[in-house]
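Checklist before submission:
- one chain only
- standard amino acids only
- sequence pasted in full

Submission:
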Amino acid sequence: MSHPVIFDRQLLRKRQARAAQLGPATFLIDRIADDMAERLSVVLRKFEHAADLGTPTDAVRRALAGRVGMIAEVVADEEALPFSPESLDLVVSALSLQFVNDLPGTLVQIRRALKPDGLFLAAMIGGETLSELRESFAAAEAEIEGGVSPRVSPFADLRDLGALLQRAGFALPVTDVERLTVRYASPFALMQDLRKMGATNVLVERRRMPLKRATLRRMAELYAERFADADGRMRATFEIVWLSGWAPHVSQQQPLAPGSARTRLADALGTMEIPTGEKPR
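Returned file contents:
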């Protein structure tokens, strides 16, 4: 089945290579790597064979060293994974999957690669990320150029990602979100960090014409007017969405079959049950 092509993944690889040459900005991925290690520390089992899927630095592998038996870096297209079925105990990924065009297909491939009762744990950019920059660019372009073009990539929201995990066949799927606020001296400092993350605009439908200086200048003015704190530094939101799910296994907790409950909800709540259609007295 075909899927929409939103991201220019060849351009993404070029931007990531440029970021490595510039000296990458790693504060965000380093924090995620530490959080991932903490989340795995409460899982009371050993993961002998693990794979790190697409994480742009070695931060996750360093953070998990000693916590898993062996963790391999996967240098491959996330949309065409090289894993054999039921070959891995753990798949992790940090700040990579938000740029996958066929995310449902990738999740299915990951679930198939996991052994029964294997775990998938990932962090990706969520929909509220860079909302300040998106708003400022849109307002500036509308004012200066009479129209709006996509300058910041769209990202999936929490509800959609939870549904995708279920569709991919994961058991016990869980999603949660963390919002981080980073402060910058100017929006240009933020944009420089995005270049050093390899996270600048890679939309297929991006505008090819160079950005007008007047538009860029107005964007900076609007950003300062709307999102600066009292000390003049400007806020930038990064929303991190966490996904986890297990490959199905008979040992996992299973939902009860409909009608199998032995206790009435009304009894548990200490209230009176009113049949459908009747009004309470």
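Reviewer check: The beta strands are 47-53, 68-74, 88-94, 114-125, 171-184, 234-246.
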